[in-house]
Amino acid sequence: MGQLKNRCESSSCDYWAVSKAAGNLTNQACTLASRHIKDGTLRLQFNREVSYYARGIVNDVAQGRKSADLGLKEIKSEQSSLLSQASEIAQKGVGVIAGALQVATGAGVCYGSAGTLCLFFGAPMMAHGANNIYENGRNILENRTDTEGPVRKGYQAMAKSFKYTEREGNIAYGSIDMGMSIYGAGRLVLKADSWRLFRYVRTDYVRAYKNSSAPVLVLERSADAITTSGIYKEWKDKNKGDQ
């Protein structure tokens, strides 16, 4: 008897699986909406649309218009789409904040070196930061992924002048962006409690990353990971094109 109680008919088991998947989709949509949709009316509308969509699949399976496998496949596809969109929005947001940090770091390099490092490190870092703010900010506002700022276009133009393509320019842009990030994290800055009447010595300085808070370090490393992923994608596409 125990085995009979634990056993369910195929149709009822399939319906239960689809219903459970639909519930998970609705919960996931609510979670993502609370994070990324600030307008209450739009958030409610989004949650309602996903709920109607999930309920429609469950009803189609219950009435035999769709198989349980097809229903589960459609729900899984919608979940993947939602996660992909959420990840894309998060990456753009990280890009904007990281760009602002680059601008601030570049300004700090110019100020801390009394202008001696501004031309080679400070100014380029601020230019990259402003470009990253522009690209990611416009991508968020216009719901796109292909914005190219003036600095990136400059790299692309330089690559073309050497008989390369825009792809090599993008790789160079990302590589230099990474290099400046590493330099910014490893450069020497004054300790918070350092004070000298005449001049500072080596023990008064510490690596910049040691002066950074944990959230800033996490954000900067996340931005580096996104940049590395972009460089790898461009390199991979380049190799495909060369074959």
Short description:
The chain has 243 residues and is mainly alpha-helical. It has helices spanning 2-6, 10-36, 40-62, 68-112, 118-142, 150-161, 166-186, 208-211, 214-242; strands at 188-190, 205-207. It folds into two domains: 7-66; 86-242, no CATH class.
Based on the model shown, name its key terms:
243 residues; mainly alpha; 2 domains; two-stranded antiparallel sheet; 9 helices; elongated; disordered N terminus
Write up what this structure looks like.
There is one protein chain. With 243 residues, the protein is mainly alpha-helical. The protein folds into 2 domains: 7-66; 86-242, no CATH class. Helices cover 79% and strands 2% of the residues. The protein has helices at 2-6, 10-36, 40-62, 68-112, 118-142, 150-161, 166-186, 208-211, 214-242, and strands spanning 188-190, 205-207. It has a two-stranded antiparallel ribbon. The radius of gyration is 26 Å and the shape is elongated. It starts with a helix and ends with a helix.
